[in-house]
Design goal:
Elements (H helix, E strand, L loop, with lengths): L4 H21 L6 H14 L3 E5 L2 H11 L5 E5 L4 H9 L3 E5 L10 H7 L4 E5 L10 H11 L4 E3 L19 E5 L13 E5 L2 H10 L27 H10 L3 H19 L5 E3 L11 E5 L2 H9 L30 H9 E4 L7 H16 L1
Parallel strand pairs: 2-3, 2-4, 5-6
Antiparallel strand pairs: 1-7, 6-7, 8-9, 9-10
Helix pairs in contact: 1-8, 2-8, 3-4, 3-7, 9-12
């Protein structure tokens, strides 16, 4: 599915240089390397502020905490379970809406129909690197007087209608899981925001509720209920080394996605997912008839695949009691039975992508 080694090799001299400086300082948590990366990442995302945190899950949780969310949070049923886990961790209750069957993104019309007096926040997901209709969700949140938190954990570098995501809400969560468009060698994440107040609150919430500007012994005082979710210096070294390549590598992903589009167009048994022009192509996902047979056929030919994700969240035991049953979100449920993720990463050779597409065609036409 993905080979991380070429990207790591491309940045190793810079990564090692930064790492050596960390060892010389012997400062591993919330030091100068994290501060430097935060500034670089904010600029790259078009955001005034960025705050490094321990994971994408923590980024979502901390956004919800910073927004003072209580009650129910409405999000997509088609996403990683960590979106729902973050809602629970923030002390809120997950609620789910259906997806647009053409894009697999949260459907704003279905979300609007499922909002109630108990809805305390909207949490749309920029799934697979594709921006959702964030302008519609902003309008829904504004009309309801509730916060809008964006799950951009798969959307590093994405814009919507040419605008940075922080233009639509002050809470945008990212993940640096190793396989993301910008990934570290472990867990990591960040929150971007246009608000200095929110940035300061996020800095406190990631660090046990302490005041990031406190001096002397007062730095040990916890001022609010919070968590411990800090991006560490060594991960920031790698992220700083990788970040300058993000735009070029996103463009390479888009080129591979276009190759798949052309090679699989009209293929029997395959449904292409409609993609926004601003997508950063974190994953290339198709809808496939006889999915598991196709995956076995490809695996026998040395081609890895994935399923992102095999069950919509309203059917996960962790979110039992969400008020929905099997059959209530038909588009998400059907998509979960059909979706297949194909190999996609910046260093994937065009010939290899063509071989993947040819093998899929052979399966459906044999």
């Amino acid at each position: 599915m993905i080979d991380l080694r070429p990207a790591l090799a491309a940045v190793e001299p810079e990564w090692r240089r930064l790492e050596r400086a960390v060892y010389e300082r012997m400062h591993f948590i919330l030091g100068p390397q994290v501060r430097a990366f935060e500034g670089q990442f904010a600029q790259a995302m078009g955001a005034p502020h960025a705050v490094g945190v321990g994971s994408g899950t923590a980024a979502i949780e901390i956004c919800l905490r910073a927004a003072g969310v209580a009650g129910e949070v409405l999000t997509s049923a088609m996403t990683a379970p960590f979106t729902g886990v973050a809602i629970l961790a923030a002390g809120a209750t997950p609620r789910f809406a259906d997806i647009d069957p053409e894009t697999l993104l949260l459907d704003p019309d279905d979300a609007a129909n499922r909002m109630t007096r108990r809805t305390g926040a909207l949490l749309p997901v920029h799934l697979y690197g594709q921006p959702c209709r964030i302008d519609r969700f902003r309008a829904l949140a504004r009309d309801a007087g509730i916060p809008l938190v964006q799950d951009a954990c798969q959307a590093h570098g994405a814009r919507y209608q040419g605008q940075p995501l922080t233009r639509f809400s002050p809470y945008v969560a990212y993940s640096f899981y190793p396989t993301k468009n910008l990934g570290c060698l472990g867990d990591g994440g960040a929150v971007t925001t246009g608000s200095a107040r929110v940035a300061g609150l996020v800095r406190s919430l990631r660090d046990g509720g302490r005041d990031p500007n406190a001096k002397g012994l007062r730095v040990q005082i916890s001022h609010r209920a919070a968590t411990n979710a800090r991006l560490d210096e060594l991960q920031a070294c790698l992220l700083s080394a990788l970040l300058p390549h993000l735009d070029a590598w996103n463009a390479a992903r888009a080129q591979i996605a276009r190759l798949y589009d052309e090679a699989l167009a009209g293929c029997p048994g395959v449904g292409l997912v409609r993609r926004h022009a601003c997508s950063v192509c974190h994953l290339y996902v198709i809808r496939a008839a006889r999915r598991e047979r196709l995956r076995t056929y490809l695996a026998e030919r040395g081609i890895a695949t994935g399923v992102h994700y095999p069950a919509p969240l309203h059917l996960h035991p962790a979110f039992a009691g969400n008020g929905l049953r099997r059959g209530d979100l038909p588009h998400a449920e059907r998509a979960a039975r059909e979706i297949v993720s194909l190999p996609l990463y910046p260093f994937l050779a065009a010939d290899d992508a063509a071989r993947v597409a040819a093998a899929i065609r052979a399966f459906y036409t044999k």
